[in-house]
Design brief:
mainly alpha; Arp2/3 complex 21 kDa subunit ARPC3; 2 strands; about 75% helix; transmembrane helix; Riboflavin transporter; membrane
Amino acid sequence: MSNNTATIKTRKNLVSTRTITMTALLAAISYVLAFLEFPVPLSPSFARMDLSDLPALIGAFAFGPVTGVMIELIKNILQLLSTSTGGIGELANFLMGASYVLAAGFIYKYKKTKKMAKWACVISSVAMGIAAAIANYFILLPLFETFMPLDQLIASFGEFLPFIKTKLDVVLFNALPFNILKGLVIGAIAMMIYKKLTPILKGETLK
């Protein structure tokens, strides 16, 4: 009985150590991916997106939603080292990313099937879109206003989508849909690579 208890404790320690190690590794990858930005379709040049939430989503699927959030947190703490927004941009990025991986992680944890993973990606993309709308309206757009007058800011979006006339329009017709799209793209990539990465992440023997 004591040998079994010792074995169980050893396994738990190994799992815990591996989870911490993989969390750190995925956070580092996420940090690097944050520098690989792409222009957002139908948006001004300063509106850009990246795939840095992908490692956090993988982590949330593999180790649970808390791990996904931790990866997002570490990534944004690292970004603080070179921030140009006084931490405001990093806060907004964390809120959006955390909402995405938290929703996906909880849904997938409930039932770990491919079908549930698909639903997790879809629902979490909507969650991130809503979080992005809130973050843009109350945090990011006011931040941009310190560099560009509000009317000019709105007009820069209106050049691509003429029906954008107000700050709320920017949020509803730009931030919301494109963050949902971003979530779906990241989710699709995760669906393609997750099963192949699982043995590496969890230290399982390849079959």
